TrEMBL record:
<dbReference type="GO" id="GO:0016887">
    <property type="term" value="F:ATP hydrolysis activity"/>
</dbReference>
<dbReference type="GO" id="GO:0005737">
    <property type="term" value="C:cytoplasm"/>
</dbReference>
<dbReference type="InterPro" id="IPR027417">
    <property type="entry name" value="P-loop_NTPase"/>
</dbReference>
<keyword id="KW-0067">ATP-binding</keyword>
<dbReference type="Pfam" id="PF03969">
    <property type="entry name" value="AFG1_ATPase"/>
</dbReference>
<keyword id="KW-0547">Nucleotide-binding</keyword>
<dbReference type="InterPro" id="IPR005654">
    <property type="entry name" value="ATPase_AFG1-like"/>
</dbReference>
<dbReference type="GO" id="GO:0005524">
    <property type="term" value="F:ATP binding"/>
</dbReference>
<protein>
    <recommendedName>
        <fullName>ATPase</fullName>
    </recommendedName>
</protein>
Length: 382
């Protein structure tokens, strides 16, 4: 239909992926794409206009809270929506990354001279620069509240964001009523649930099919050796994981810096070992990567002897982060797993890594969904 791509860009992008064979057509996903198109159309209609040389304040737009089981394509749909938003006043990140930024901002404000004032409002101090930046759309993936500190903060935080004209588009494994279920003092959290239901359209993405698991069903996810044959195996695995998409370069934002991603597509990323373990990255960076992608392909993992002690330590932290999150891993190794760690200085830690690598290729691990693992301060400083 002429012009439909312009009128419904999210659905058009979804249909294009289906036509290319990257996705299997799913009526529930297509309906969700239509709901995201509605949010986008409302945002464009409410875009602030210049009046007497100044931009008038944008009108509030109701967002979308999309919930469903793991592997249903929620993150993929959010990616399509975010790519379709044609203006720069937008942000997309994992819910825990956003809350981490908020807590860092609150801690910094409390240490400042203004923060020591009895009347100081740290939430207002954090929200003010967000609104001043002109942010109009905040996309938060995997909205999940299990921490009482966040639970008690969200009503005031999002009340100020919504009042400032920010539209929320969120994905979650649970409906709003399921957030902070059985949490301590949950009655104090209920006003936020009401606010969320007022400010977003709550939409379910029902289905019993987990597409993420289908990508790995029956697959040998590790290859051993070097050379063109192993490279060909990894290329085939990559295309299976991405539904035939070659991928494009990208980046992961990690506390003020960017981590280059050689290839990313359909919720997966492909790195060389050197991209991750021979660069000054730490646990917090690896946690960011684990929250950004549901699947990783890592090429050319070498034997780690004494000449690669730092790289071995980073590899240990990387595998811990991926395992704790439940990220699916496909990888090529120069040597069998039992020969991988050849440095006696990291031998003890490497035993846990080998155990996890063994489990990560099992049908049981590959059949499970992502876990809600929250990162901590890095134990290996960049």
């Amino acid at each position: 239909m002429p012009g439909s791509a312009n009128k419904n860009p999210v659905r058009a992008a979804y249909d294009d992926l289906v036509a290319r064979g990257a996705l299997t057509s799913d009526p529930a996903q297509r309906d969700a794409a239509g709901a995201l198109d509605r949010v986008l159309a409302d945002l464009l209609a409410a875009r602030p206009k210049r009046l007497f040389g100044f931009f008038e304040k944008s009108r509030p737009v109701r967002g979308l809270y999309l919930h469903g089981e793991v592997g249903r394509g929620k993150t993929m749909l959010m990616d399509l929506f975010f790519a379709a938003v044609p203006f720069p006043e937008k942000r997309r990140l994992h819910f825990h990354e956003f809350m981490d930024e908020v807590h860092v901002g609150i801690a910094a404000f409390r240490k400042s001279a203004r923060g020591r004032d009895d009347n100081a409002d740290p939430v207002e101090a954090v929200v003010r620069p967000i609104l001043k930046s002109g942010l109009r759309v905040l996309c938060l993936d995997e909205f999940h509240v299990h921490d009482i500190t966040n639970a008690m903060l969200l009503d005031r935080l999002f009340g100020k964001l919504f009042a400032g004209g920010v539209t929320l588009v969120a994905t979650s494994n649970v409906p709003p009523d399921g957030l902070y279920k059985d949490g301590l003092n949950r009655q104090l959290f209920l006003p936020f649930i009401k606010l969320l239901q007022e400010q977003t359209l709550v939409a379910a993405l029902p289905s019993e099919q987990d597409y993420r698991r289908l990508k790995f069903a029956g697959q040998q996810v590790y290859a051993f050796g070097i050379g063109p044959e192993v490279q060909a195996v990894m290329d085939r695995l990559w295309l299976r994981i991405t539904g035939g998409e070659q991928g494009v370069p990208g980046q992961v934002d990690s506390i003020g810096r960017q981590i280059a991603v050689p290839l990313m597509a359909m919720g997966a990323a492909r790195f060389g070992f050197a991209d991750l373990c021979e660069k000054p990255l730490g646990t917090r960076d690896f946690v960011r990567i684990a929250h950004k992608f549901d699947s990783l392909v890592i090429d050319n993992i070498p034997q780690m002897d004494r000449t690669r002690s730092d790289a071995a330590k980073r590899f240990i932290l990387l595998i811990d982060s991926l395992y704790d999150r439940g990220v699916k891993l496909a990888a090529s190794f120069a040597v069998p797993l039992e020969q991988l760690g050849a440095d006696d200085r990291t031998a003890f830690e490497f035993q846990r890594t080998l155990s996890r690598l063994t489990e990560m290729q099992s049908e049981d691990y590959l059949g499970k969904g992502l876990r809600d693992a929250v990162g901590t301060e890095p134990s290996l400083s960049p």
